[in-house]
Design goal:
By secondary structure, the protein is of the alpha+beta class. The protein folds into two domains: 22-71; 75-174. Helices cover 34% and strands 32% of the residues. The strands form two sheets. Strands 1-7-6-5-4 form a five-stranded antiparallel beta sheet, with no helix packed on it. Strand 6 and strand 7 (165-174) form a beta hairpin. The model has no long low-confidence stretch (mean pLDDT 78).
Length: 176
């Protein structure tokens, strides 16, 4: 940037004439009184508005970040990346092990669950049978939870299989 500029060879803006227009504003005492009042209050109201906007923005950020802060270390996700593969819900144990390798730790147990069955597999003889209460059926579910540790720079993943199908992927803390 120069210290001084030479405007001796400058020319006037040819469009300046078009911009100049005459305006008339009629002022009476009533309007002047309201204008002065608005001017004195406007500074304080503007600061209050800015403060409210700042507080609202901070609260919105906290509300949006709350699930991440509350969830902390365990968050349920729908996909897992085992380079170069993507593991998603519904895959079988063998597919996951083929793509991600053997898990670091595995826990297996059996649960007994009660579910409703709406006569899907039973042939219905009459309309009366259709209106009956649904059957409650006990089923045994083999649950296996596999822990995948991908090292200290990546998160640990906990994969929950039910009867050989991937039902839940949970993200933990950084690995070791």
């Amino acid at each position: 940037m120069r210290l001084e500029y030479d405007f001796s060879k400058a020319r006037k803006n040819p469009y300046a004439r078009r911009l100049e227009r005459q305006a008339t504003i009629r002022l009476d005492e009533g309007r002047m009184g309201r204008a002065e009042l608005k001017g004195s209050v406007r500074g304080r109201a503007g600061k209050e508005r800015m403060t409210r906007a700042l507080v609202s923005a901070i609260l919105a950020c906290l509300i949006l970040m709350a699930p991440c802060l509350v969830a902390g270390e365990n968050t349920v996700v729908s996909d897992l990346r085992c380079d170069p593969y993507v593991i998603s819900l519904g895959m079988t144990q063998s597919e996951v092990r083929r793509k991600c390798g053997e898990p670091t730790n595995v826990q297996t147990w059996e649960e007994e669950r009660v579910r409703r069955d709406f006569y899907k597999d039973i042939p219905v003889q009459s309309q009366e049978q259709l209106s009956q209460e649904p059957l409650l059926v006990k089923e045994h579910v083999i649950v296996e939870e596999a822990e995948y540790n991908f090292g200290p720079t990546r998160f640990m993943y906990y994969l929950r299989f039910e009867n050989g199908k991937l039902r839940q992927i949970t993200v933990g803390n950084y690995g070791y």
